[in-house]
What does this fold into?
Amino acid sequence: MEKPGSLTAPAWVRAAVGLCALFLLSHCNTPAVPPGDVSGNRSATQKMFYSIDGLVTDTQNRPLEGVVVVIVKGSAAYPEIAAVTNEKGAFSLGSLEKGTYTVQATYSGQNKQQDVTVGDRSASVAFVF
It folds into this structure.
């Protein structure tokens, strides 16, 4: 039996991942429309923003829920955002400019990374654990 207040490594990892995901989702939710532009109209001088949408599955093509997905590097400026996959294994990282980004997914202590290029439209990526 564990002592009160102590955490085993797996429980500590689950708690840390959960807290990080909640913090990032509640504090880093960047709007797709730049602040101050409530109309949604974009003039020639305004930047366009895109997203990286994706899916995370296991090797048997079953969706994985609760996977933390972040951008760890980019050729363009990028917001400090994270996503957590839903019950369908889907995620979306928004408010991105055109450029190449390194996207990292973390599941059960394993990290996988992929480079994704965002051009004139949003991009998609898939991870398999």
